Amino acid sequence: MSLEQHTQLKKVAVLGGGSFGTVIANIMAEKGIPVHQWMRDANRADEVNTQHENTRYLPGYALSPALVATTDIESAVRDAAIIFVSIPSPSFRDVLRQAKPFVTSEQYVVSTTKGIESTGFHLMSEIIKDELPDVKVGVISGPNLAKEIAQHHLTATVIASEDEGVRALVQEALHQSYFRVYASSDTYGVELGGTLKNIYAIAAGLSAALGMGENTRSMLMTRSLAEMSRFAVSMGANPLTFLGLAGVGDLMVTCMSSLSRNYRVGYALGSGQSLQEAVDALGEVAEGVNTIKIVKEKSDEKEIYMPLVSGLYEVVFNGAPVKEVAGMLMTNEQSTDVEFVLPRDAV
After folding, report:
1. 339 φ, ψ to 5°?
2. Model pLDDT, residue 323
3. 11-15 and 35-38 as β-strands: parallel, antiparallel, unpaired?
4. What is the pLDDT, as a whole number, of residue 333?
5. 3-state secondary structure of 83
6. C-beta neighbour count of 333 within 10 angstroms
7. pTM
8. Which is the catalytic residue, given 10, 11, 114, 197?
9. Does residue 176 contact residue 150 with C-beta atoms inside 8 Å?
């Protein structure tokens, strides 16, 4: 069934009223696809419906008048062809449980959340499979700053799923002249790439606040890529995934842009603010803060060499001096420059 045929009978749901949930809902609404966006806040939903703006997360950006916001999760998800879940990781499972009575096995459920559940090291796709075992699952990840998408800047993302039908329908639903959607079957690798890069964005913000140079930034980003791919491969991901949009692409944008929430938290920490002050000033969830702690515990458990994560953990949670930790990183074991090198006849 084509998307045009599909939307004559169906609709799309987006769970979450944050910046990214709002922009993907708006992408589809601009195309004439019926979109219902579920939000907890009745005032925010009314604002989207009447003023066509989300002033908390996307102030100043006009939304399509066709976008329908609601606080009724049943009306949002019932009969939706695709349910996008754009909920911060600590609340992700709870919202799925609220939606569960109204979800059928014929619907596709796609996570856009870049995070890890703190208990048990569950990625969002695993939570979906746990709570909704009969649905087909996908994840979206890539270098996708919401405010740039809202401005229609050229952007690309990745839809990853083991199911070809999920990949194809999400590509059709989200494709716009300014928004390109690539496909991958490495769900775990794409999801881990989007999650792990949040850690290194905090490190990039720290280094910028301390006035470190471009050489330092280059070193930090390339060693971050090696470290995150080392961890992901040990968890079962494909290392080549990290050469694409969900790996190096997402890492670059989140480590170089002041629009990145995690970068801004790192910059605040490097400027002398406490973690609580940095998070309060941001006013939004920065997934990387919790991810540092979760990945540190998992890397210790699996004995994976992750010096950047270990150093950041000491800075963020134990108040260690940043310059002292940076000095320690420079004296750590020097491993090979490029890991996971393919045999020449495989290239």
Report:
1. -100, 165
2. 74
3. parallel
4. 65
5. strand
6. 6
7. 0.89
8. 197
9. no
| Residues 195, 200, 203, 209, Cα dihedral to 10° | -90
In angstroms, rounded to a whole number, what is the distance separating the alpha carbons of residues 108 and 204? 36
Evaluate the CA torsion angle 181, 183, 189, 191 in order and state its sign. positive
What are the CA-CA distances from residue 49 to residues 46, 62, 149, 235 (Å)? Answer: 5, 12, 20, 43
CA distance 173 to 138: 13
Angle of helix 214-234 versus helix 307-318 axis, rounded to 10: 110
Residue 197 designated active-site: yes
3-state helix, strand, coil in the chain (%, to 5): 55, 15, 30
DSSP for 180-209 reads EEEEES-HHHHHHHHHHHHHHHHHHHHHHH
Residue 285: both structure tokens together: 């969830």
Provide the 3-class DSSP secondary structure of residue 136: strand
* pLDDT tens profile 266-298: 898 888 888 888 878 777 667 788 899 999 999
Is pLDDT at 347 greater than 50 in this prediction?
no
